[in-house]
Amino acid sequence: MVRKLRLSLLAVALMVFSVSGFAQGSKKSAGNNWHLKDRKDGYYGISLDKAYELVKGKKSETIIVAVIDSGIDTTHEDLRPIFWVNAKEIPGNGIDDDGNGYIDDVHGWNFIGGRDGRNVKQDSYEAARFYHMYKEKFLDLSNAAGLSAADQKLYKDWLRAREDINKGMDPNELFFLKRLYPVLVKGDSIIAADLKKKEYNGHDLKNYKATHPDAVATREIILNICEGNNGNYDITNRQIIDDIEGELRKAEAADAPPRDYRGEIVKDNPNDINDRFYGNNDIMANTPLHGTHVSGIIGAVRNNGKGGDGVANNVRLMTIRAVPDGDEHDKDIALAIRYAVDNGAKIINMSFGKYYSPQKHWVDEALIYAESKGVLLVAAAGNEGFNADTMPHFPHPILDNGKKVNNWIMVGASGDPSNGGLVASFSNYGKKEVDVFAPGVNIYSTIPGGNTYGNLSGTSMASPVTAGLAAFIWSYFPTLTAQQVKHVIEKSAVPADIKVTKPKSGEKVDLSDISKTGGLINAFEAVKLASQLTGQTIKTPEPVKTKMKVKKKKKS
């Protein structure tokens, strides 16, 4: 079950959670911005500084990167200068100046908003929606032999969905969670009033002196959760409460059809892909954390002395809100991809996913459309430690007709020996379907509220590192095609020089056993390869022979 590529809650009684939007990482930290560093610095980063040295003095072209996600903090100082601007639209006049069907879409569009200004925050999970959609059709079916080929596939997926939602949460955990939730909410309201902040994090609570018993309990719970997530005190009250609410909604899915959160607000015809002019222009809405962090990884203003640096230095970010707190809808994703393509995006980052796709044909058509227009698609592999070769994760590059789009990169999350291992323990993998691995553990980037920054983990973070690299390459080598940029990233990926731990199994394997290229993305090597493909000359430094220094654990 994927919710914006996060893991489900772990044992609540142990107070170890995988918090809204992000996967659980390791207990150590390699430090801020390790993902941009080089092996000679002692980290398995992407060698970005070395790559920029290669293109010093070379002109670059601006690349538009669309971020299909939960929204973005439109006030963040490190992101405001790099927003894509629809030059044909006059801001705030209530008129569709460019005639594209979307009024005042100055920086992007929100496909999960209503014309009345309301926005979808939470939503149900696709397994539940899928199960109840076909429950009447398949519940009493005893023999699938008489079904058509299409219905047999549908029935097989329905059985899988039924199994997923009937697994549910451990009854003891559910009982504990139901008792915990009202205490947490009451304590949260007290703390928010005391701190004069609707959203606060673990750092805010370190010196907070609670007096009310519920506030004391809530403070302790949140701090324990932060500690259980690698000492990540950037985790907020809203993330935790949202995730608990999600678990409670999921627990109800087996017995009753999920609430139509989206339909109550969006009010389109969800069964008609041609009913596409819905939503609003509120790209920040009320859930911008995930999208803000992803966006900063791609292109936060470089070398300005503020927070961290993005990967690409000449990008414009187009924000398309289509991912709620819950599973996204296929229609929204299909139309978001088309919007990005039609408005000039060269790269689309997709840090989301799910394991059921009832309207996959709509998304397939959008992928084909993007391919025909020369747009590169970069997608996160997922955070459940699954084999993506046998457990398809949607969107997916393999179409219903068996063909595969050739403008797609699927990215697994890597780490570093200093922060838990070279492959993230939560990352999905696959020798056929996961193309490359990129840094996705403790990645430092922009977060909403007061121009702040924080470290978060997930393949949701590995994907924008790769999308940022694609934008960097394309901006300096603009004659490349989408397929050539994909080729450059994959062929320049650097093989791991140590064995990696296969997620979930604990087995030591070669990286080539769990990914197509067997490599970690590397900006320095990518620039060298791109220059060769385009016949350009760059001055490359002499190679420096270094050995990785990995501290051994002391015997206890």
Keywords:
556 residues; alpha/beta; 15 helices; disordered N terminus; disordered C terminus
Structural description of this entry:
The protein is an alpha/beta fold and 556 residues long. The protein has two domains: 33-122 and 270-534, Rossmann fold; 126-251, no CATH class. Helices cover 33% and strands 11% of the residues. It has helices spanning 48-54, 126-133, 135-138, 149-167, 171-195, 202-206, 213-228, 237-251, 261-266, 289-299, 330-342, 360-372, 459-476, 482-491, 523-534, and strands at residues 63-69, 108-110, 315-321, 347-350, 376-380, 408-416, 421-423, 436-439, 443-447, 452-456, 494-495, 500-501, 508-509, 519-520. Strands 1, 2, 3, 4, 5, 6, 7 and 8 form an eight-stranded mixed β-sheet that branches. The protein has a two-stranded antiparallel ribbon with strand order 9-10. Helix 12 (360-372) links the parallel strand 4 (347-350) and strand 5. Helix 5 (171-195) runs antiparallel to helix 8. The longest helix is centred in the N-terminal third of the chain and has 25 residues, at 171-195. The radius of gyration is 23 Å and the shape is globular. Residues 1-28 and 543-556 have low confidence and may be disordered.
Brief characterization of the structure:
The protein is an alpha/beta fold.
Task: Write the SSE topology.
Elements: H1 48-54, E1 63-69, E2 108-110, H2 126-133, H3 135-138, H4 149-167, H5 171-195, H6 202-206, H7 213-228, H8 237-251, H9 261-266, H10 289-299, E3 315-321, H11 330-342, E4 347-350, H12 360-372, E5 376-380, E6 408-416, E7 421-423, E8 436-439, E9 443-447, E10 452-456, H13 459-476, H14 482-491, E11 494-495, E12 500-501, E13 508-509, E14 519-520, H15 523-534
Parallel strand pairs: 1-3, 1-4, 2-3, 4-5, 5-6, 6-8
Antiparallel strand pairs: 6-7, 9-10, 11-14, 12-13
